[in-house]
Amino acid sequence: MRDSAPRPAPPNALTDAERAQVLTVLTSDRFADKSVAQAWATLLDEGTYLCSRSTMHRILRANDAAGERRAQATHPPRVKPELVATRPGQVWSWDITKLRGPQRGVYYDLYVVLDIFSRYVVAWTVAAREDAQIATAMLEEAMGVHGIPDVVHADRGTSMTSKPVAQLLVDLSVTRSHSRPHVSNDNPYSEAQFKTLKYAPAFPGEFGSLADARAFGERFFGYYNHEHRHAGIGLHTPASVHYGTATQVRAQRQATLDAAYAAHPDRFGHRRPAPPKLPTAAWINQPSQEALIQSA
């Protein structure tokens, strides 16, 4: 079987120099962000014909330039926040959510700051707008009452990344931590707290005025801090964990269960009952064991 001879180049084929010129034009700054059709038509309007559009595509494919021809900007990946609190006062999380007002398009902004270990809401306010100065004043007041935390975590909202808030934290030597863009799990405690608020039976859905929203906040956060038994902290109230009375409360629970067991051990399958354990740590993206060893 004879080897097939290479096909001769058609007489109308572009020369190597002409193909190089086409490639140079299409990958130039002027046409790098334009489609082949756009470049071809623009050149034609200017009185220049280099080749057909199909030939342009073939030249680009032959030079691995058929896709994106621009130099692509590269962005370093956002660092995943890894925070741990082993007692109250170490890590605070804060966020802002919208509350529906009395008519369409009217919303109030609810700012909430909580301690991730105790779940205690250390500060909150309702305002007619989102404003960095309001956030700064709220955080500063909370630190005056509850002490200065090691870390303040938030998402990347306008107020959270504002200069006034950043400057306050820098001045107080508080580490700033931010969620990655579009990663709600990076701020789980604030998200969960807002869900508790908005699914509470007493939540009205909409508020007749700013004063109504603030009055609801007074009632809700008083209940949340001092009466709500939180599953994430051994069914204690945030206030009990925050102020250190949870150990005594748990001891009292154990005494009550001991008495019930002594009276009717058969009702417990002859296994001594115990109340839920107290938390030992709270995490935002649990750090690796290596990171924990390094921070110890």
Automatic annotation (TrEMBL):
InterPro entries: Integrase_cat-core, RNaseH-like_sf, RNaseH_sf, Transpos_IS3, Transposase_IS3/IS150/IS904
Organism this protein belongs to: Ornithinibacter aureus
Record protein name field: Integrase catalytic domain-containing protein
NCBIfam families, alphabetized: transpos_IS3
One Pfam family from the record: rve
Coiled coil: none
SUPFAM superfamilies assigned: Ribonuclease H-like (SSF53098)
Domain annotation Integrase catalytic: ranges: 84-246
